[in-house]
Structures are given as C-alpha cells and as structure tokens.
Amino acid sequence: MGSTFQIDATLTAFIALALLLLTGVLNWNDILQEKGAWNTLTWFSILVMMANELNELGFIPWLSKFISRDLHGLSWPIVLVILILFYFYSHYLFASATAHVSAMYTALLGVAIAAGVPPILAALLLGFFGNLFASTTNYSDGPAPILFSSGYVSQLDWWRLNGILGIFYIISWLILGSLWMKVCGFY
Predict the structure, then answer these.
(1) Which residues in 86-182 belong to E strands, given as ranges?
(2) Confidence band, pLDDT 50/70/90 cuts, at residue 39
(3) Per-residue pLDDT reduced to its tens digit, 11-37
(4) Where are the chain's structural domains?
(5) In the structure, what pLDDT confidence band is assigned to residue 2 with cuts at 50, 70 and 90?
(6) Transmembrane residues, as ranges (predicted)?
(7) Residue from 126, 115, 118, 124 nearest 87 by CA
(8) Cβ count near 80 (within 10 Å)
(9) How much is the average pLDDT of 77-94?
(10) Is 111 in contact with 67 (CB distance < 8 Å)?
(11) In Å, how far are 68, 91, 95 from 25, measured between CA atoms?
C-alpha cells in the first residue's frame, strides 16, 4: 500500500522498527547487537544510492550512447557477445550485484535492442548474467564474503578461477542458452 499512500519502503521499515521499540518487542540493545545487519544495510544503501546517482547524473545514459555509437553497424550477435562480455567482466568493478544491475542492465538492454538483438533474448541473457557474475569476486554479492571468509581459497585464486569460469559461463549461456531459447521460441 506504500505507493497508494505515497510512503517510501525505507520509511515504512523505520516506522516498523520504531513500533517494535515502542511496544517493547525489541529494545535498543537488541538492535545494537545486530552489527552485521547494520553494516550490510549501511554499505548496501550506499552502493544502491551510488548506482542511482550514476544514472541521475547522466553517466549511465552517456555510457549507453558511447557503447551504442562504437557498436553501430555491427551485426546483432556480435553486439550481444560484446555487451555480455562487458556486463560480466565489469562486475569486477562493483561491490554489489544489485548496484551493478541497477546501474547497467537497462542501459545495456537499450543498446542491445537498438542494435537489433531480439528483445526477449537480450533481456533474458542480461538477466541470467546478472546472476552469473555473482561468483566473480569475493565481495560480488551477499554469500561471496561468507564463502571467502572460510579461508579455503585466496583472493587471487578466487578472481583468477572465476575469470576462467566466466569463459565457460559465457560460452555455455551464449551458445547453448541462445540455441535453447531459439528452440523454445523465445526469439
């Protein structure tokens, strides 16, 4: 009902927290003991805000036009491969899958469609790779830091191995996945 009453989801969460505190269900010490949750909330909100600001300040539209201009005249399969490679490997520069997808999915989808890539194929492949790049770094999404902190794999090995695994993902999803989507009639 937030959109009906024009109440932001963040405000709703803080109202709920205030009610829990006022009714005694939680006390302030309960909240302070959840350091990991507050740490995650703080960093996650900053990363999502930064992705939003990149879009509002015009960086993402500029990037979209820049990429589109450089890819103009190429056949759509080549454009799709270049965009997927860029989308996947640029995740090394992001500390959050949500921030990355928020910042780049729409822009790259627009470039793909403008280049003649079938819209459903472009949307699905970018969506799939928005999940597949979660393994690229030890900070790439929520579970990655937990898995990394187990200490079984060094940071260098994590990055190197997932850079190589990325090649497997790209070949599998772009070739086999695209063929399967064609058989299923998605494009």
Answers:
(1) none
(2) low
(3) 787 888 889 889 999 888 888 887 766
(4) 1-33, 43-183
(5) low
(6) 6-28, 40-62, 74-95, 107-129, 158-181
(7) 126
(8) 25
(9) 89
(10) yes
(11) 54, 40, 34
Return phi, psi of residue 50, to 5°. -65, -40
Distance CA 93, CA 177 (A): 26
Residue 60 identity (one-letter amino acid)? I
How many CA atoms within 13 Å lie on the side-chain side of 64?
Answer: 19
pLDDT of residue 177: 92
Residues 6+ apart with CB under 8 A from 130: 87, 97, 100, 101, 105
Q: What is the pLDDT of residue 36?
A: 67
- Tokens 């194929």 label which residue? 121
The structure tokens listed for 6 are: 């024009």
- The total of other beta-carbon atoms located within 10 Å of residue 142's CB is 13
Write out pLDDT tens, residues 90-105. 887 777 787 788 888 9
Provide mean pLDDT across the span 40-44. 65
